[in-house]
Amino acid sequence: MSTVEKHPQESTSLTVSNIIFYVFVTTLVAYAVNFKRKRQRLEYLASKIPGPPALPIVGNGLAFIGNPEDVMGKIEMFMEKYEAPFKFWVGHELYIIVSKPEDLQIVLNNTKTLEKGPAYKFFLNTVGTGLFSAPVEKWRRNRKVITPAFNMNLMTHFIPVFREKNAILMNRLKKFENTGKTFDLWEYISGAALDIICQTAMGYNVRAQEEEESEFAAALTKIDGQYSKKLKVFLDILLELKDAGAHFTDADIRDEVITMMIGGSETSALTNCFCLTLLGMHPEIQDKVYDEIYSIFGDSDRPVEMEDLAKLTYMEQVLKETLRLFPVGPVFLRKVTEEIQIASYTLPKDCNVIIPPVNTHHNEKYYKNPKQFNPDNFTPEAIAARHKYSFIAFSGGARGCIGSKYAMLSMKVLISTLLRKFEVQTDVKMEDIKLKVDLLMRSVHGYPVRLVTRDRRPSHVRNSATVQVN
């Protein structure tokens, strides 16, 4: 019986394959052991924090697959089931939801949590590394230079822009006046917001609203031409800072302008849409807002000035209450670069903190009847009685939104301008509003309203006249 003799080359080939296989397996095991060893402390501290059961490898990631409305519903479900802080895993990344004001104050002010979470990397191709998404070192350098320049003096120069673009908006809305026709506010307010931010950030008039109103817009441009020639915009400020020796590259300037445009356009537009819809749902509150406007302007058509806006204190309460109910920034994320202690737990190094404002804003511990629209939540007395971090629509701490004053001013101009001309009505009820999340939080079904001509008398005069007639 003969035997088959193995060829020496075949034997060598098998040996090389075996060696490669063993090296691969050994490397993989070594990597896994090292990875596990490095994460030992993280996993130990994570085990102390409650949260939903996680699957191997994927963690809880499958729970967040779905359309934007479903994702929002699942997040709310987790929040109802687990009191914050609680954890979940997406792959090997640990996320911890934090929403108690005392914990928020620690997280938002700690130098070990200044780094933004990994999700912000998805925005880099769109917004670059402006203040919104920049790594800590770049953020520190740029914020020191930009923040002092973003002052009330600059805001005052923007008021004529706010007036002009809102005048165009009012002219576009006139076609709905007294028609009984319902329309979506977003389709109109978003254009005004885009016009405003492009003009104030870059000095460029994109004419987003002017397709239908070219003659009217041209007349306004002619009237206000004198201010536009000398308007100093955000881009001018950055260029001046660069010339004065600030460490800005052209890419840095581009990123900061884009950040302002994205952060200052849709956020304000969405808040205005939510606010006007809520005022349509609550005519008694709309009357109070108008009465405040009337106390400043009477029944005149004089343009709004900066000093007028400071007097609109009840309107500011209304806008803040709108942001409490519907914070357009759905979440803030921070990376923990070193262990920190919050009230009940230690947050491990390399975990990610998720801060959903709605979870704090809708908590009955901080707001009575939290799902109801009540601007009295923001009287000076109510604010003083609550923890400072029970309202975080603009985030908080060192990396809070530097554009919050700009946003509030621009929204006050729009709301006051619109309510001087129109009364807002809607058939929408609070329970009808369904939310979805993309980059921002918005209404699934839009913002349907009707407009009727404003009776310019204050509400007590109108009401007494109605009683006498009856």
Automatic annotation (TrEMBL):
Q: By its UniProt entry, which PROSITE patterns does this protein fall under?
A: CYTOCHROME_P450
> Domain of life here?
Eukaryota
GO MF? heme binding; iron ion binding; monooxygenase activity; oxidoreductase activity, acting on paired donors, with incorporation or reduction of molecular oxygen
Q: Where in the cell is it found?
A: Endoplasmic reticulum membrane; Microsome membrane
The coenzyme or cofactor needed here is:
heme
| Membrane-topology annotation of the record | Peripheral membrane protein
One annotated Gene Ontology cellular component of this protein: endoplasmic reticulum membrane
- Segments passing through the bilayer: 12-33
Entry keywords, A to Z? Endoplasmic reticulum, Heme, Iron, Membrane, Metal-binding, Microsome, Monooxygenase, Oxidoreductase, Transmembrane, Transmembrane helix
Q: Does the keyword Oxidoreductase apply?
A: yes
Asked if the keyword Endoplasmic reticulum belongs to this entry, the reply reads yes
The record lists heme as bound by 401
Q: Which PANTHER family match?
A: CYTOCHROME P450 4C3-RELATED, CYTOCHROME P450 FAMILY 4
Similarity remark: Belongs to the cytochrome P450 family.
Q: What is this protein called?
A: Cytochrome P450 4C1-like
Species this chain originates from: Diaphorina citri
